[in-house]
Amino acid sequence: MTQSYIPAPWRTQLDATLAKNIEKAPDPFMVSVLQMSTVTTDGRPANRTIGHFGYVGEKPVHATLPAYIEAQADTDPDEKTAQIKSLAALGKYRSDIFVLETHMKTKKVAQIQENSAVELCWYFPYTGEQYRLRGNMHLLSSPSQAGSKERHRILDEQLRPFCHPVDEDVSPIPFDWETLRLNRLFNEPIAFRSWYTWDYNGQRLETLSEAERARAVGQMLDCPYLGEIPTRSPEEGGGLDTQSKEFGQTQHALANFALGLLQVEEVEYFNNNPATFGRIVYVRQPKDQGNQPGHSEWAKQTMIP
Ligand SMILES: Cc1cc2nc3c(=O)[nH]c(=O)nc-3n(C[C@H](O)[C@H](O)[C@H](O)COP(=O)(O)O)c2cc1C
């Protein structure tokens, strides 16, 4: 019997704040970006803006993904079967595990690999509220990266119990971590997908060799946008056109595409309105403090603002 999903109290509050801000903002994107801090290898803070892409398990399957998985020639047949089976699980889970979508070669990825401590800071201008989410971020990268099996094992052990099927009466189809990652890239806006086909992320142009510089600039010119993969006509056998430029570019993008999965440990909320001025801290309780499997108890602390 699986434990049904009970949203963390901070999540319920954050969702309500986000909904109010989306209602008031001229464009929802304006309130769907936040700041993320990591720690550098020499112990200094590093901060940047990221997008809000929701939580683990909640993104519905992209229409092209089943055909893409079918078309993969290099995937191990057992792995492919598991991926196809798990397609039905996409969007059918709920969790409080925040998802970062990023490029494998960004500095934040190297920093998280050294030190998984992360703080997100999300300010909502239309309601004057701020949420700071603290915890440890797990990386979910391409299976071509060394150690991917071990990373999946750790995710299974540490995060999977906190992902709950929406319909708990139906025997849940388990989701597969790689399928989850693939689905996130397919759901990325076309304008951002091309970023992942550029291999020289964050490198200074002047310090590259002439050949590398030509390659770096060539990659950007070659793929300013990464559109949908074309399909073959039924006469040509149907399915995705694996010879198309977009198919190769999508495979390339997937090698650089990574997710950061944040298990939140503490949330500090600040309300900056004179009438409702206040500060609350939610702290996830240690494992042995009456928690059900896959469920966290949260202590709510009222602070002097
Ligand atoms: C509005 C906005 C949204 C962004 N969203 C993301 C994002 O979701 N993921 C990401 O990796 N970078 C995003 N960026 C770029 C980052 O802020 C940052 O410049 C880049 O990831 C490199 O950071 P790093 O080298 O410190 O890791 C965004 C930037 C802006 C201005």
From TrEMBL:
Which GO MF term does the entry hold, naming one? FMN binding
InterPro entries xrefs: Pyridox_Oxase_Alr4036_FMN-bd, Split_barrel_FMN-bd
Q: Which domain of life is it from?
A: Eukaryota
- Domain called Pyridoxamine 5'-phosphate oxidase Alr4036 family FMN-binding: residue spans: 8-140
Pfam families linked to this entry = Pyridox_oxase_2
**What name has this protein been given in UniProt?**
Pyridoxamine 5'-phosphate oxidase-domain-containing protein
Q: Which species is this UniProt entry from?
A: Dimargaris cristalligena
